[in-house]
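Hi! If you just cloned this repository, the fastest way to understand the data is to look at a raw example. We've pasted two of them here, unedited. The first protein comes first, obviously.
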Amino acid sequence: MEKAIQEVENFLIEYIFNHTRIPNCVLDNLDLFYTIACEIEETLEGEFKNGITLNPNQLKKVTLMEKIEIVKQYFQEHEIEFDIEKYIMDGTIAFIDYNQLEESEKQFDIRRCFNGNMKKEKNHKKLIDVSENGFICDIPILVHEISHFRDESTKTSRNQISNLLTEALAYGETLISADYLYELGFSYDAQSIFKFEGNTLYQIAKNYKKVAKLFLVYKKYMNISKTSYQAFFEEIEEYKDYEENIKFLKEHTNYDLIYETWYLLGLFLAPFLLNQYKKDKSYMEKLKKLHIEINKKDFLECLDLMGLENLSEKDRIRIVAAMYEIKEKYFKEKGHIL
């Protein structure tokens, strides 16, 4: 065990050194993100402790052209200027059957139906790869990647704030477009998206807590001994938890705490963005403005555009309340396909 502790401690030292040459907004506010992970786990554990099961035979199958038409309709109704056909024709958007990426793949993997990627080439050209598995639930994934495309500048790099909040915008629009499908009558498909993203958030939060605890202890005591760990968390933690967390990080030396924070926060905020939109459809204008301002404004200014203040307990109560509303609507109902 002592060897494992030393290996993990060395990992923490190197990671912190490599990411604190300038102030880092994630590491500087790690106690907040740890608290958020705890609140997520507590809120979603009842639904996702044992994972989820999705039946691909119940998902609505549509052609690619039908999906494109629905996306065009979605953008038109929300007055979002995005010429999807242009970007398909020039090769910016590529549709991929992720189930066929590996020749050894023998069985259909439903997890590959929720895949996408937006990247920027060395020549600053932006490219989108997105799932094409013949299902209507591919649509929110496409909307997600287009969201990243819309707030990624071709001339400037992202900064810490836009990196931290771009996933919130993208996942917010994922849920809004999934709700759009729900309203069109594709109940099971929409619920599948909500359940998949909810389960993803729960799993991220569980692992995040394990790693964040060790970072927090090291930042205070400059070591992660059992004594320091117990002193930091006092009577609420057990030694078994300490060993499990050491083992997890030792086995996941590629774990990137900052990168995972982007997704933790993004999926945490997304239900609130959907909730605000459902209350007032003009809220979409704030999200469109945020696409323009995300690379210019500071963190608090971006939160203000969302309708939040500083992610204090007052804000988090509102966000968790939005998560409960999603649970009631999309996790309880069995749903059907019209």
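Ok, and the second one:
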Amino acid sequence: MLTASVTLFGVVFLCNDRYEKTGGSGSAAAFFFMFVSNAAGLSVMLIVNRFHISATAFTLWMGVAAALDSALYTVCSLKALGRINLSLYAVFAMLGGMLLPLLTGILFYREPMTLAIGICVLLIIAALALTVKKDGRRGGFIWYAGVFVFNGLAGVLSKIFTEAPFPKTDAASYSIWAAAFTALIGGIGLLIVFRSLSRPGIAALLWSAGGGAVSRVANYWLVLALLVLPASVQYPFVTGGTMIVSTLLAFAVGQRPSKRELLAVGLSFLGILALVLIKI
């Protein structure tokens, strides 16, 4: 399940990158992306859950929190992708996506810090450090930092949902509510900035819908995996794997990762091997 999610997340990064190229990165483009991608994700999750949806107060509040996090991540992603390439964008997203849930699991849920996890995290941090480049354009760092924080918070919210003792729904219903609330935010935003929205092409529509559907399924699988795996194990695996997949996809779309980025992928692979093979 984790390997399938990793593959899908690589596809999501590609879809986000292609949408930025075809749909733009302004506020109107971001709201359009939020609405279309989450409407598509909502539709897919309703099919996956056989059009069954349940609700509790806790699930609804968590859905709202996840939607706000997703909206902020979308804005930061589109802004960042206007400045950096696909593989480097994945660095900021995946570093946040690994460290914040990992620290949450260890500090607040008493998950053990094993040798395998330590080696994996150090190798992946070293891999990410290899890919860091200076951005000469002013104001860019805030978008990179936003990608780091808000992608990490998605994992933290999933961990909180699975571990909280409050009455809650199944994971699919949580994903459905998160998609619905995010689509609502996008729809309200579109109404506000509609006049500044240039007519989106069919390519932008397809990339946003495809990315949204794939992302929602991938995140749903991660929530299911958290029922049996600690966050401190799951998210380093996802981070290293997604770096590998996104770099391979960068080749597929004509972007040539540097030697440093390829070395980073090799270190990520070693980190995953350490996580899987070392038993202490």
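That's it. A detail worth noticing about the second one: The chain has ten helices and no strands.
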